[in-house]
Amino acid sequence: MLDLIAPLVVPGETKIVLLSLDGLGGLARPETGRSELETARLPNLSRLAARSACGLIRHVAPGITPGSGPGHLGLFGYDPLQYQVGRGVLEALGIEFDLRGGDVAARGNFCTVDGEGLITDRRAGRISTEVCVRLTERLGTIRLPGVEVLVEPVKEHRFVLVLRGAGLGGRLSETDPQALGQPPLPVRALDAPSERTAALVNQFVAEAKRLLHDAAPANMVLLRGFDLLPKLPRFPTVFGLRAAAIAAYPMYRGLAKLVGMDVLSTGTTFKDEIATLHEQWPNYDFFFVHYKDTDKAGEDGDFDAKVAALERFDALLPEVEALRPDVVVVTGDHATPAILAAHGWQPVPVLVHGRYSGADGLDTFSERACRTGSLGTIPAFHLMPLVMANALRLTKYGA
Amino acid sequence: MLDLIAPLVVPGETKIVLLSLDGLGGLARPETGRSELETARLPNLSRLAARSACGLIRHVAPGITPGSGPGHLGLFGYDPLQYQVGRGVLEALGIEFDLRGGDVAARGNFCTVDGEGLITDRRAGRISTEVCVRLTERLGTIRLPGVEVLVEPVKEHRFVLVLRGAGLGGRLSETDPQALGQPPLPVRALDAPSERTAALVNQFVAEAKRLLHDAAPANMVLLRGFDLLPKLPRFPTVFGLRAAAIAAYPMYRGLAKLVGMDVLSTGTTFKDEIATLHEQWPNYDFFFVHYKDTDKAGEDGDFDAKVAALERFDALLPEVEALRPDVVVVTGDHATPAILAAHGWQPVPVLVHGRYSGADGLDTFSERACRTGSLGTIPAFHLMPLVMANALRLTKYGA
Fold this sequence. Notes:
Mean pLDDT of chain A: 95
Number of helices of chain A: 14
Largest interface: A-B, 26 and 35 residues
Structural class of chain A: alpha/beta
Distance between the termini of chain A: 19 Å
Oligomer: homodimer
Number of strands of chain A: 13
Shape of chain A: globular
Radius of gyration of chain A: 23 Å
């Protein structure tokens, strides 16, 4: 799809806002038969939906619950089955680590081993973040032949290990045996290109053991979720857009950075994000604006809090519309139904509004109403081509 | 898809009419909320839609606006992403040039160069077509080793260059620098199989310069849109149909010819085309009938003219039905919404009527109504298999 789009992109003056409500989609509360979107009072969203093309998007495949990585890649136009971003990379993005194509990242834990090297605590008694910072500095002194070694603290016992250099492979087994009373496992390469990397990681683990021998309870490390950062096509290049991300949470800033968007400084609330949107309006063609509260309430299983989060979003929507963007998209990166209290596999409502979008005339913006919309149920990565077309930024295919 | 279909084709006596309304799909006029199809009085089409299976077809991919080439290839059953027809080939088809598989075609302009060979007018002052004809005759005397050189006038300063011979490549850079005060660029091969072709084209340009030295303002040529004619499977062979095209405009005759249909002589109006359909009714199993007026009005941004064009079509539809075809299809090669005044990316309404099509009972034939039809929203190249099935011309797959 990206190969099809890129040669068709034409310059333009139009502006696009993609509003991503994290965990937007929901499910009906059994007592009322109405979902979060159907329960909330959303006058602005309903009015906008009536004047938009609506539908449902599916981020990965039927029945598959997307993590934040695949969910956002889909929204950004990348087929998440083609461009995979794994756990180690996501851990690094979550601390806004500046990953580069070809980097191998892993999630690290400090752990406790006894005199025989057997694990007695897989989380090293959840040491303080302060201790974690000090010990990762120690690990950062490790030198390996031909690669750069980067060790960054995350929180408590968690850290990120990144190896940077040419010719690394990311298909590696984990060192965590997931059980006590056993030694950490050596890393094995799961494919030929990862063999040298496996040897380097085992050398890192041996050095770490030596450097941490006096640091009990954090006297050893466990590594898992190894991942090679895929070389992703750059979003601004593919779509010919000056693209900015406005997100209060580091994970989403990281995902936007991964595809080459400019990540704008902003505050900690959605109101701050909207203020940033207004300030930066002249400087970009495309804004990805992330709203976290819906997901948080959904994950907590708090139906009423999710309804309230939707209503807070709705109250601020006119401030986005006041900028008169040429195309507005409202959707999410996955469902987080409050009754599930977790990410869900359900397709997520979407609306696309613009001069040429057509108006489906739906009276609410909800899972049920959007099923009858003109966009149908489509893969999330089909959204960006549609948005580009609506912004008159694609020329025709074939003469 | 073609590989799946061809072995399943069985002989039959059934007759199929594919009515293609160029640029059929539209968008609602903001003042009324109704599209061209929803505004026009279309009693015959509405009556037929009620007794048909309806849906929407997408010619290329979501958000992608089809040119006439990909739009028609889709209708003819070819996936336009697999079978690509480029600009040079389309220019040749537009004058009904008899292109053959392996030919390389380019769009040519006569231009003006000064004493130092720098371009002073990229269109040679738009010389008359008469002068163009005379000068292309001159260029037609050029001989190149191992290939046939064919030069055909188009209109004013435009001509078509075709090289015919074995082993040619079509991946060539353009000679037009798209700016004044510069010399024409030499052609470069963009892949290895095109290297010999690049050398031949550069030799052609050198000869052309010599032959045109006294022909100012048309004293040089610019070439662009080089293309190798893809070897397309022949429509009559794949589908086992005696297939005829009835189209008043040369481009659409050319596209039908490209897939091996017989192109019938006809007049300049849709009424003439219908008369031709009646005359030739006994001689073919499949008729592609092209209606241009809808697209022309849409391109002009004239909503009312497009409504009128639809009503004129509707008035003649009973003359097609009077022939009692076994399967009638009404659709288009792309949308041309009048409010967009250009080809659009929107999916296009389609109806398939026959004894076994089922009847969706829709009360209008429109973008909105067809969304709810039994065919769903499908790729255009899925249409021909459906039509063949409805004509009882496909046996089952697997015993």
